[in-house]
Amino acid sequence: MTRYDITAIGEGGLRLSVPSGTRLERTPTLDVNVAGTEANVLSGLASLGWRAGWVSALPKTPMARRVEFELRSHGVDLAGVVRTDTGRLGTYYVEYGAAPRPTHVYFDRADTAFTQMTTADVDWDLLLDTRVIHLTGITAALSPNVLEILTEVLDRAEAAGVPVSFDVNYRANLWPADVAAEVLRPFVERAEILFVRADDLAQLYDLGPEPEQALDQVCAMTRARHVALTCGDLGVLASIDGARVKASARPVDIVDRLGAGDGFAAGFLHAWLDGDVDEAAEHGVVMAALALAQVGEQVVTTREELAATLLDSASRLRR
After folding, report:
1. Which one of 233, 262, 274, 312 is the catalytic residue?
2. 116 with 149: CB under 8 angstroms?
3. pLDDT tens digits, residue range 89-119?
4. Of 230, 233, 271, nearest in space to 251 by CA
5. Is 167 a catalytic residue?
6. 125 lies in a domain?
């Protein structure tokens, strides 16, 4: 039996956001939430009862301890986290938009403790003692050191027979599309489970505008058995062992626009870990809706709530 059901490596940090309708240059206050795309996925899965282990690096600061406290509260194991005397904690700022202004995200992630990690800092035995490893394209963009680590994860996981889950998660604020497309291609090709937004495919690989065509094209690029193409309000189109599966986006009153993609990945992987991959897309859209309906990026839920919402997402009152 493995030590973990899922492990992941990525950066943790703080999200500093202004109240809705306030501009960053004028705000007297900032709301503080813990952020980190891989950690978000692990937190959602840990809340559903899965054994989740995080590999990362955090500085020895009060702000970093805030990240630790949050992730521990969700049940994520931090045995693989390195504490450092150098580097800083990554942050990003969010200015929520209302029409006609979009929401803006500003990253401040240079020279963090995590970007200074090397392959020697990774507890490989811990990271590989799992049923699946989750990686993302956001992390690949952060530093050459980190990209080297992720590349070694691919090689070691393949040698050990551990499947890799990969979320393309392209961020134009972190790197240009042509660079990202080249760097991320090996991860797309070698993943066992692949998550990608339709918009990301269009920017990175100029794939067809129609979801069915785009899914065919990305399936031709990858050896992944399971590919999930997320299309925003249009829902999800997936290839599960070669079979096409569609899942409609669930109706939701949006409270916090960030974290839905990580919620989807957590829901999909929950079904995969449970041996119910044919229903993975449906679990994913429900977890994405739960993420949008609560403040913060870590989905707080239970198996019972997830099951109930799968059956009935329209109920306004449960007694």
Report:
1. 262
2. no
3. 999 999 998 888 899 999 999 999 999 999 9
4. 233
5. no
6. yes
